[in-house]
Design brief:
about 170 residues; mainly alpha; about 0% strand; Multihaem_cyt_sf; Cyt_c7-like; Cytochrome c7-like domain-containing protein
Length: about 170
């Protein structure tokens, strides 16, 4: 009886210890300065991605919104939203708005938004998931974009999987 109780206690302890390790070892994720509601802007108001991410059609990077982009619509509050109020105050203070990148590719990986979106006509959802439906900024990418993800997409689209295409 005591031996089975000791084994049971050991198993439960290992489960608790393992779960605690997994929870504590995860990165906290990214906290954006404004809880931006993509659904409100994209689905409800019909704003296109290019309005806030202006570079993806012509450059390798998409660009993150800055104060000029936000001030185009939000110099004054249009709603009672606490986040919009915070945005208007940040704009009035002139300190800038610094959104943080969610995706961080290794230095040896070359990725071009222009090549994938403007030329190949891939929808943003392929890499960004259902970001257009999000009510607040995700703390980490909605889609795990890694080499397997890219290789699978390249294979599905019938484009090269030659190393030099992406690794430089």
């Amino acid at each position: 009886m005591n031996r089975s109780r000791a084994i049971f206690t050991l198993i439960i302890s290992l489960i608790i210890l393992g779960s605690s390790y997994l929870l504590l070892s995860q990165e906290p994720g990214i906290q954006q300065p404004i809880a931006f509601n993509h659904r409100l802007h994209i689905e409800d108001n019909g704003i296109e991605c290019i309005e806030c991410h202006p570079y993806f059609m012509e450059h390798s990077v998409s660009g993150l919104p800055n104060e000029e982009v936000c001030a185009g619509c939000h110099e004054e509050a249009m709603t009672e939203s606490p986040e919009e109020k915070k945005l208007v105050e940040m704009l009035a203070a002139g300190d800038g708005i610094y959104f943080l990148k969610l995706f961080h590719l290794p230095d040896h990986v070359y990725y071009s938004h222009r090549r994938h979106v403007a030329i190949a006509q891939l929808p943003c959802e392929n890499c960004h998931g259902k970001i257009a439906e999000s009510l607040s900024p995700p703390h980490r990418p909605l889609v795990k974009v890694d080499m397997d993800h890219c290789m699978e997409c390249h294979e599905d689209m019938g484009v090269t999987n030659d190393c030099i295409a992406c690794h430089r």
